Q: What sequence folds into this?
């Protein structure tokens, strides 16, 4: 457990979990899941959300028992070298999440607003912001997460505009797809919920961490609600084949909005979206840098700088739709394995090993 | 002290960096905002595109100017347009796009690609078919405004007044991609110094195959829209005695007993209206009930005829297929296409005349 001054109130976990889940995925998740589940895709959103809630529960089982972060758990269970290796996989995973979010956001700016934008300059500006946040410590990162959820919330009101053209009959007939198709969609939907595993790193920073569990669940439920809301409007607004053509269906829905003072609301939406992705990147970088710092015993600020430079170079290297899509797929696969296989296994293992150790201690 | 200085420097840094972002600035005085575009296939398979842009005169009046060019792709034409223009032509303010009659008959799917792909074009722009040459229509000056705005106002005004159904790029694409529905577009014609909304063009996929004339607009609208407002209808009751009703609010409901079979499909329409003009003396309750019945019969008859016409052509602008699709599991578009022309579709209208104006 960390010192009292560095800790945060349990209810802030709500914003941390929600902020890191909401990313660029909200702008274009519809096409992938509707490809397999069509008008029943909303069930996949709910199913994925429930599964994630189960995993959050498992994570709390592990953390409440151990009362320390993932790096220390690894070290404790597997020793310095093997434990360090597993920790590194997680760190890479978190950093990749940060990278994907940043790069996908830049892609959206490139396609929708400024086609000729200088990617490196743009990422430098965002990363300076990330640097100043992350070096401020975990409490600052939490603050950004809170603001990143509260301030841009008005954005979701604009999704009421497309309802004028919505045809809610499109949701019918319910249960028109097989369980198989729905499970494929559920798997695809998982990417939209990933990132909450940073909880494994900031758990020691929560005051009364046991009390924070319900907030973590609620944060996830809010994410579920937003996805569901946007998806139902998408299904009603577009015809099914039409969604298949939209890479960013959410942004395409904004094209219908007409306000007297602005012709294109996407521009407001996309610029506001930076507030939504900022906590995402910050938390991912914080978790990654904290991990590296703990494993190698380095200066935290230098680690952050190092990580940000790597992020900067990677954003410049990745070019075009295809690359981004590929990285997204890798991340989602890695995330699925880590979250759905690794965490439950680790929890069982931790449980067994502590039991054996206790038995040995009492016997000896 | 040094640390704080560094922090401020860090904060200032981004402001300087914004200059290096290579952002494409578009200052309104330095660009040519195209407000409408007309598309026409030439005989050798090229596209002829005409753009209209407003030119603001020193005395505050607006003159619309046009440029025309042909190329293989419509964005290629834009580059060619720039060659003829002192300022770069941009498409962010396009309000209406026009398609020539034969072009519409040939199919406009390929021409729509540029509109969908371009993030600067909204999905609430209007698409219209022109009876005649779009180039000619666009090169005329109508009133004091720019031609693009004029056309967009013309259509918008008629939609709001309930004359025609709602229509825009999004709805055209929605119907184009929907499996049980075909799109429709308004047709305009240039007559003397004016533009007239002449008919509604019926599409099979992206090809225009027929029209609905002005007299049938109302019938088409109440059958198409789930809930409609405004709109007006007139009818001859006795020899050269007419009645006209307005402020018609309509509600349409489908009654499909057994979807995807040969069984009958019933479209229930409920109309509530006010009498706006009546030529046959004073009105009383008995007369109103009689009128209601007459209107009902007339609307039913006209609707039936219209639907029959659609079935003969094998098109489904009313979206009856969509209604069936949302009522069946394992929807099969091919099977529906075979079923549709021989289906029995009947219309059941319920008319209520609520008010008769300020006189009896």
A:
């Amino acid at each position: 457990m960390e010192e009292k001054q560095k800790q945060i109130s349990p209810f802030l976990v709500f914003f941390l979990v929600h902020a890191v889940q909401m990313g660029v995925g909200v702008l274009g998740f519809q096409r992938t899941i509707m490809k397999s589940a069509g008008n029943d895709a909303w069930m996949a959103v709910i199913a994925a959300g429930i599964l994630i809630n189960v995993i959050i529960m498992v994570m709390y089982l592990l953390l409440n028992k151990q009362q320390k972060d993932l790096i220390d758990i690894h070290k404790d269970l597997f020793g310095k070298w093997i434990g360090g290796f597993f920790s590194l996989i997680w760190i890479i995973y978190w950093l990749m999440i940060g990278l994907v979010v940043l790069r996908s956001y830049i892609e959206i700016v490139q396609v929708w607003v400024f086609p000729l934008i200088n990617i490196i300059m743009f990422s430098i500006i965002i990363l300076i912001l990330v640097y100043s946040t992350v070096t401020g410590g975990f409490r600052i990162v939490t603050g950004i997460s809170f603001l990143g959820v509260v301030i841009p919330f008005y954005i979701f009101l604009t999704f009421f505009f497309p309802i004028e053209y919505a045809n809610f009959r499109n949701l019918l007939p319910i249960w028109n797809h097989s369980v198989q198709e729905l499970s494929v969609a559920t798997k695809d939907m998982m990417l939209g919920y990933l990132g909450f595993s940073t909880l494994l790193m900031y758990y020691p920073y929560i005051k009364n961490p046991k009390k924070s569990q319900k907030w973590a669940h609620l944060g996830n439920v809010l994410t579920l609600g937003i996805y569901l809301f946007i998806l139902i409007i998408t299904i009603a607004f577009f015809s099914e084949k039409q969604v298949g053509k939209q890479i960013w269906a959410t942004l395409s829905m904004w094209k219908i909005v007409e306000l007297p003072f602005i012709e294109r609301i996407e521009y407001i939406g996309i610029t506001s979206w930076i507030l939504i992705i900022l906590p995402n990147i910050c938390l991912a970088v914080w978790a990654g840098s904290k991990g590296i710092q703990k494993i190698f015993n380095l200066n935290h600020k230098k680690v952050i700088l190092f990580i940000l430079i790597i992020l900067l170079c990677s954003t410049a290297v990745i070019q075009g739709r295809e690359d981004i899509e590929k990285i997204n797929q890798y991340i989602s696969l890695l995330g699925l394995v880590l979250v759905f296989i690794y965490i439950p296994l680790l929890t069982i293992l931790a449980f067994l090993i502590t039991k054996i150790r206790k038995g040995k201690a009492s016997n000896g | 002290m040094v640390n704080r200085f560094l922090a401020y420097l860090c904060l200032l840094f981004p402001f300087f960096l914004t200059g290096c972002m290579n952002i494409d600035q578009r200052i309104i005085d330095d660009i040519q905002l195209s407000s409408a575009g007309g598309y026409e296939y030439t005989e050798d398979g090229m596209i002829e595109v005409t753009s209209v842009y407003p030119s603001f005169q020193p005395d505050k009046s607006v003159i619309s100017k046009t440029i025309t060019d042909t190329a293989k792709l419509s964005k290629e034409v834009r580059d060619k347009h720039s060659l003829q223009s002192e300022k770069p032509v941009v498409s962010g303010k396009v309000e209406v796009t026009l398609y020539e009659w034969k072009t519409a008959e040939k199919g406009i799917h390929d021409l729509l690609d540029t509109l969908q792909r371009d993030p600067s074009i909204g999905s609430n722009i209007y698409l219209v078919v022109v009876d005649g040459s779009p180039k000619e229509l666009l090169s005329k000056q109508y009133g004091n405004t720019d031609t693009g705005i004029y056309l967009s106002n013309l259509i918008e005004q008629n939609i709001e007044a309930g004359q025609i159904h709602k229509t825009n790029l999004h709805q055209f694409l929605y119907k184009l991609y929907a499996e049980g529905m075909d799109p429709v577009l308004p047709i305009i014609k240039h007559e003397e110094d004016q533009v007239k909304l002449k008919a509604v063009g019926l599409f099979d996929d992206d090809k225009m195959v027929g029209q609905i004339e002005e007299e049938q607009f109302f019938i088409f609208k109440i059958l198409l829209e789930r809930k409609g407002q405004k709109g007006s209808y007139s009818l001859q009751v006795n020899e050269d005695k007419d009645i006209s009703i307005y402020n018609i609010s309509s509600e349409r409901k489908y009654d499909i007993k057994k979807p995807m079979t040969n069984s009958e499909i019933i479209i229930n329409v409920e109309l509530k209206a006010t009498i706006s003009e009546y030529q046959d003396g004073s009105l009383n309750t008995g007369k109103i009930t009689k009128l209601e019945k007459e209107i009902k019969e007339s609307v039913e008859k006209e609707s039936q005829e219209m639907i029959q016409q659609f079935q003969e052509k094998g098109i489904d602008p009313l979206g009856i297929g969509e209604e069936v699709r949302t009522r069946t599991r394992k929807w099969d578009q091919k099977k529906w296409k075979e079923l549709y022309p021989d289906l029995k579709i009947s219309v059941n209208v319920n008319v209520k005349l609520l008010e008769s104006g300020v006189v009896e």
Notes: The radius of gyration of chain A is 21 Å.
